[in-house]
Fold Sigma-70 family RNA polymerase sigma factor.
Amino acid sequence: MDAEGPDWGGVLARHDGWLRRVVSARLREPQGVDEVMQEVALAVVAQRAPLLDPARLGGWLYRLAVRQALLHRRKAGRGRALIGRCATARPAAEAAPEPSPLAWLLHDERRDLVRRALDRLPPRDADLLALKHGEGWSARELAERLGVGVPAIEARLSRARKRLRAELQSLTGDFEEHDP
């Protein structure tokens, strides 16, 4: 940190991976992640109040990324609604692709099932699970980055896993329960 403030480029570079994971989990569409990350960078640089507690930087960045992702989703939704109102005719459906091998089909169905279950979770739970399992973070790393205590993270992870299991059970009716 110099006399003018922190090196925001370096700060954003250090936190880029996990912030992208959070944004991706919130958007659920990979093409908007770069745009949202640019908005996060602009918001970081444009912030007017100095960061009083550098230890809470991760939590602040997390909240900023979530806010920017929500704004992006709102904007994209308005755009889709406008396109839907303006569309007069849809192109004819293309021929269905040839059937895939069974293993690919099962993998695709399983991924879709988990995505649907994650979509039904509260966003905070989905974020935690994405960071824990997608980034491979420990509870301590999650606590440091999100600015909360390790016991709180462990409790949140436990609740998120239980909710995910319940959602999977409600979607399939016969999901076998086991701990990851």
